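Entry 14. Ran structure prediction on the chain below.
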Amino acid sequence: MTEKRVHVHVSGIVQGVSFRYYALQEALRAGVTGWVRNLPDGRVEAVIEGDEAAVDRMLAWCREGPRSARVDQLEILPETPTGEFQGFRIR
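Output, structure tokens:
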């Protein structure tokens, strides 16, 4: 099992508790760990870590987002997995 960690910035109409809530639900379904938070400029920032296939599923979801959000751009910055997270936190 290959571990993967990415730092993600999602741009578009994604601001708000609803996007973070849906992201948390999807992260739990995908089995990834990390955190997500809203940025003042309207983007959402997250770190996602876990099994490579699970992280890829979460990234695919981020490209679509919940029905209430329109994702314009997904910036993905690969990082070295650290195993520091337990669960998925909303900041």
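Helices lie at 17-30, 52-64. Will compare against last week's run tomorrow.
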